[in-house]
Amino acid sequence: MTVESTPSGRAVLTLRRAVIGVCVLAAAWIGSGLEDQTWPPTLIVLAVVIPVGLLSFRRPVGPVPGMVETEHPLRRSVVFWSVLLTAGLIWEAYAFFNQPSILVGSWEHPTLSELLHPVFEFRSAKFVGWVLWIWAGLRMARS
Fold it and tell me: Rounded to whole angstroms, how far apart are CA atoms 130 and 29?
């Protein structure tokens, strides 16, 4: 994505940006109204992750403005996010398999969803969480 800006440095609202914004808000609103840990929110997550992931892989590799140039910037970021993702998956798997039941969370071995459940108990908080999650994913895919 290219950022169009005016001489004052502010971004211009284009039709593409407006459509993306409406899609982000719609996905967040729908996702925040669904019951936790069921298939419908999982499908919404996939509907967001797949296009954003394709967007990030479609971008050409090159220097990132404001960052020190390295020989392989994409390789470094892929390694970093892969290590972070692997650590998160190991934590989730360990906590999940040490719960008393598949459907009952445990505070002795909490999963991330179990830790965040009190925060996202209300739909407004869930909506803000969804918007922030999608926004962060788009920002990472663009950089």
Answer: 8
